[in-house]
Amino acid sequence: MFWIIAIIVVFFVVKFILEHKYKKLEKEVLEILGFSNWDVVSYFDERVVVKSRSALEKYDDIKFFKENKEKLMVAENILKRKNDVATTLKSFLEDNEYKSDLQYRRLKEQMDTVLKNAGAYRICVNYISTAGKNLGTKQIIINQYEIDRLKEDPSLLMGKGEYNKYLKEQQKEALSQKQHEYYESINNLIDYANENRNSLVMKGSREQLDGLIAQLFDRTVNSIKKIKTVDSEEWDVIGRFMSHLKEEVEQLVAINQRILDYYESPDFLKIKETCEVLMSTQREFNEYITEKVQSISQLFGTRVVRNETINEDEYNYIRPYKKTITPFTAEVSSTVFASAENNPLEYVVKNFYPNKKAYPEQIQKLYRLVEELETLRDAKQIIENYKAEYQQYLGDVPDFIMENDEAGFYSRLGFANIDESVLTVEYKFSYTSSGGLAQRSFTVPMTEETIVELIKVLESKLTASAFAKEQRLLMTKKLREFIKKRDNYTCCSCGNSIYSEPNLLLEIDHIIPVSKGGCTVEENLQTLCWKCNRSKSNKMIC
User: Fold this and answer.
1) What is the pTM of this model?
2) What distance in Å separates the CA atoms of residue 43 and residue 445, rounded to the nearest whole number?
C-alpha cells in the first residue's frame, strides 16, 4: 500500500514539474512570438444563422458581403493579421533552439493549431430551426484572392438598380478620364508652343503658330465636349488631327532652331565680324531708324500678350496660350459688325477714339504718323542700297537663311529692320457668336489716304473753336517733295546733300514745332538731314 501511494505521489510530482517546465517554456516562446496566448487568432471569424436548408445551401461569400458590405474591409484586415501570425510561426518553426526540449512536441501542437486557424477567413453558417435546434452547418472559407476579386469588381455585391447606377457612373468616369487624357495632350502642345514662341525668328512664324493653336482650340476642345461615349470614332479623328498639328508645330520650331543655330555658327560670326568694321560709319543711322520704328509701334499702344483659350472652359482644364495681338481689336455684336463694314472709319472713331476731349492730341499724332511713315519709307530704300553694297562681303550665306529670315539676318549684322507691318497700323473688328462656332473679322489698314480721311472725321467732330485751333495743312507726300526740291535736297543746318552723300536721309522739320503752335506751311518747314534733325530735338512720338 505504501508503495502504491509513493508511486502516485511521485507521478503527480513529476507531472507538476513537467507542467511547470512546459508553462515556463510556453511563456518564454509566447514572448518571443509576441503573442499574449494561443488564442491570438480564431478558427471562425464570423457566424451566421439561416432559417432554412435551402438558404444554408445557397449561402456563400457573395451573399455574406452583400448583406454586410462593411465586413469586406474587416475581413481583409483579419486576413492580414492571420497572415502575419502565420509568417511569424513558420519562421519560428523553421529555426529555433527549443526543438530538443522534451516539451517541444506539445508546444508544436499548439502552434500547428494556431497555423490552422490562421489559414483563412472563415464564416460559420448554421441552420437553426424555429425551435432552436441546429439542423445543419456550413463553412465558408475566404482567402485574399476572393477579397481582391470583390474589391476589383464591386458590381458583384450590388443589386440590379445599384449595378445599373454603378455602370453609368463607370461610363461617366471613363469618359471623363478619356477627356482629360486628351486635354493633357492639348496642354502639352500649348506648353510647348508657349515655351518656344519667343524663339521663333522667321518672318510669319509667330502668326503661323498662332493659327495652328487656334485650330487646336477650334477643332479639338469643343469637339471633345460633344463626344458622349468612350468608344466613339471621333476620338481617333481628334487624335489624328492633334498628331498632325503637333508635327506641324514641331517642324516650325525646328526650322527656326536651324536658323538660330546658324547665327551661332563660325560662318555667321565671321561675316558679322567683317561687317562690324564696315557698319561703324552707319551704326548711328541704323540706331536712329530703329528708334523711329519703335516710336511708331508705340504710337497708339504697344502690342500686348493675351491669354487665348476657349470661351466655355468652365473648369479651366485647358491652359492658356500666350498670343501677342495688336491692341486695336474691337469685339463687337453682329449688328455693329455689319454697320462697321459699311462705314468703317465712323466705327473706328466710335470704338477706338471714345474720348472727344483727346481728339486734338490724337489728330496731332495722326499728322505726325503720316510724316514718320514717309520718313521710314525713304529710310527703307536707303537701307536696301546699303545691303546691296555689302553683298561682296557676305560670302556664302545658306539659301534657307535668306529665304526664311532675310530681315533677321541683316538685323543681326546691325541693319535697321523696317517691317511692312510696322509701317501699316490697322484696326480690327471681330465678331464671335455666343456658341463660338461663327467667327468673322475685318481690318481697316491705316494707309496714308485712310489716315487723312480719319483726320477729317475727327476734325468734323470738333467744336468750331477747337477746329479752328487745330486746323493746319497736312504734310502730304507732295509737300514733302516740294520742300526738299526747294532746299535743293540739302540740309539747311549742316549743308550736307544727296549730291555728296547719295544715301543721305532727308527729313522735313517744323521750324516752330507743332507742339508750340507751329503750322504745316511752307514758311515753317525746312529740310534737315537725319543727324541734324536728331540733334535739334527728340522727334520720337511718346
Assistant:
1) 0.59
2) 90
